[in-house]
Amino acid sequence: MNVTVVGASGETGRSIIDGLLGSSTDFKVTAIVRPASINKPAVQKIKSRGVSIIALELVNTHEELVKVLTGQDVVVVALEPFDLEPHFALASAAKEAGVKRYIPSAFGSSCPPAGVMMLRELKERVINHIKKIYLPYTVIDVGMWYQIAIPRLPSGKIDYALTYSSDQVAEDGERASSVTDLRDIGKYVARIITDERTLNQYVFAYNEVWTQNQIWDHLEKISGEKIPRTSVSSEEIKATIVDRQTKYNEGAKSYQDLLGFVVPQYFYSEWHREDNLPERAKYLGYLTTKDLYPDFEYIKFETFFDELIKGSGVPVYAKNN
Amino acid sequence: MNVTVVGASGETGRSIIDGLLGSSTDFKVTAIVRPASINKPAVQKIKSRGVSIIALELVNTHEELVKVLTGQDVVVVALEPFDLEPHFALASAAKEAGVKRYIPSAFGSSCPPAGVMMLRELKERVINHIKKIYLPYTVIDVGMWYQIAIPRLPSGKIDYALTYSSDQVAEDGERASSVTDLRDIGKYVARIITDERTLNQYVFAYNEVWTQNQIWDHLEKISGEKIPRTSVSSEEIKATIVDRQTKYNEGAKSYQDLLGFVVPQYFYSEWHREDNLPERAKYLGYLTTKDLYPDFEYIKFETFFDELIKGSGVPVYAKNN
């Protein structure tokens, strides 16, 4: 099975490459990378693992893109959705190339398509384009990564592994969300893209469901430390989102400004609204990996906690990754 | 089962009332109508058939609306989607009232959610609102009505029944679309809203699939007349849509101006793009009534043709209905 991955050197992309190369299915994996990135260590690393590398810009390269995607069974896109042009270009080329299944860049939490998260709305525009051209697809969302769902310890003991920590609780901390180890995402993808039941469907891949209080309790228990539980009300988080989005709309357009309201939107959706629960995902039309693959062996959240405490945690979005 | 219908005096609404009252299920039916419409013959007619009538505006009446919808199992909306405010107001009130299933105003052809038909995009905004508030729902689309899929005969013999005729063929007339008798829609609705399998799903209800040439051939055969087959190319219909939409955007805002591009968009989607086929609907996520209710007894398209020729056809959108 020929699989092309776009965005292979990002966090999700690397998990997908690992999942495909580690699978019992014989995937022939190609990665499309920017010509400017061809000599980057991350690209050379996947090349050395047997991934074919194609250097190609995605926009205004329609004919080359169609040629590259011709013969590919599956295309997996793991690019940021802030600039939609590459997404539209890829989907249109995949359609023309006869790609049998297209995995657009979702890989987020379960969330209603409009009115909650700007990022989800951008993804919806890509999904709608796919549907307009009848490109066979599977949307894969993955819940919240273990790697960013954890508060810092007062001792600073696990700071080494926390690029982003989650130090506040929504309301009383009793709200729940689905969590997934970033390292499992690729394994889910390898399973999902070889499964006919998931064609033209949405799949919610997740490992476990935890409340914030359960996360705090468990981390307190295994660390022996007391972790503050600073509460954020729905009103506070909504006000933060409105404030930062207003500033962004008024001209504060840096990537940090963008994250300034995107990150609180995630927090609001995942914890306050509890959008990211399996039953909510099912309401929204997702199949779940629990129903599809009851035998799937995933990394338990408790295992991840133990790694953190032992010092073997790995930070995400680290410069040297 | 308590069912409230909004828009009960429109074409789709009347079919729904007929379907509910004629069903073997014991539906207790209520219709919400505008206070200004309370004395209209159409309203008095359904009242005389045992439908409870409630006169209430839909916008800025949230508390009354919640009170009226409390205890209702199902709310069916068959209103035009040009003004979205009543749709948002109804859905929000239904959520607060604990309505078990909400049927938003779809009742159109199968069509991708964006980029093809403005009407479909408006409906999507309502569906997205429903999903944002996790209101239990079923979207029901119904293909193209028999009643508007037929060309006029040169003799004028069937003009009496054709409020809108369909006198042109897309390209060579070989393209196909799903067709449904307007009178069957309510019967489908009665079946779908009592079916747990259709909760939080999209259902495509249709009777048969015909090409335009098959429609022309059959009508020629039973009438003995030769019917012109004026072809419209994709380029022509797209140019018409762009032209009329531009005029609308520039200020020609009458209802006729609106229909001026909405009607060609339907034609383009249903015949040129063939969006309205069962396999396309399935791709878009619909369950179909053929799969759900293989025993469903519908009015055959040939029966409808025979009625037209015999003089027992009934025009739609007629003033005296």
Automatic annotation (TrEMBL), chains A, B:
Span of domain NmrA-like: 3-245
Keyword line: NADP, Oxidoreductase
Pfam families, sorted: NmrA
GO molecular function terms attached to this record: oxidoreductase activity
Coiled-coil regions listed: none
InterPro entries in UniProt: NAD(P)-bd_dom_sf, NmrA-like, NmrA/Isoflavone_reductase-like
Official protein name in the record: NmrA-like domain-containing protein
